[in-house]
């Protein structure tokens, strides 16, 4: 026995088939994005937690760590980008302050302005990472809106085809075009909802997961900047 969706597709007219194909394409795109983003975020979160634990264990040697010292992960994650961005910015400021320092043997510190610049750089790195994680999510929100409308278009078109056949003198049980129109009208509505509902649930889940992960990035960035202040900030003595 054929699936009701395949049966409706087979009996639809040309424009009805185009609506079905559009809905099938939206379904494929939706599930590809959902599965890809879900697996990617899981890998990123696992790698980030491992990296954060490693960094906290090495806090006394924080800015002497090299790439080969880091734990290996299959997927690049924002925590590593935040760390290396902050490390480079801190070392650049330390090199600048040492260059302008009168005594080359005196310890080098960061000014308040330098620390604020490092914090701003971390915030920019976090914002960039959030933007990358949210890439292509707008497609899901578009599908959530578009799929029911395409289903509604199929419904209206199918009813128009059915009425046109009735006006042409077809009986309710004898015209293939009439039955095809009714089948298109019912099936496209169901198909549009079956596409939109998982896309909506997945979109909200991914947005919430990214929001939670962005908070973890902010916490990690705050930890790194606090370590910079503890180790390199110049103490104001009054």
Helical fraction: over 70%
Overall shape: rod-shaped
- Average pLDDT across residues? 83
- Number of helix segments? 6
Strand content: under 5%
Overall structural domain count: 1
Amino-to-carboxy terminus distance: 88 Å
Element pattern in H and E = HHHHHH
Structural class: mainly alpha
Radius of gyration: 29 Å
**Uncertain spans:** none
Main sheet record: none
Number of strands: 0
Summarize, please.
The chain has about 240 residues and is mainly α. It has helices spanning about 5-10, 15-55, 80-100, 110-135, 135-165, 175-230. It contains 6 helices and no strands.
Q: Which labels suit this protein?
A:
mainly alpha, 6 helices, rod-shaped, 0% strand
What do these coordinates show?
The chain has one domain (4-232). It is 77% helix and 0% strand. The chain has helices spanning 4-11, 14-57, 78-99, 112-133, 137-167, 176-232. The longest helix is centred in the C-terminal third of the chain and has 57 residues, at 176-232. The model has no long low-confidence stretch (mean pLDDT 83).
Topology, pairings included?
Elements: H1 4-11, H2 14-57, H3 78-99, H4 112-133, H5 137-167, H6 176-232
Helix pairs in contact: 1-6, 2-5, 2-6, 3-4, 3-6, 4-6, 5-6
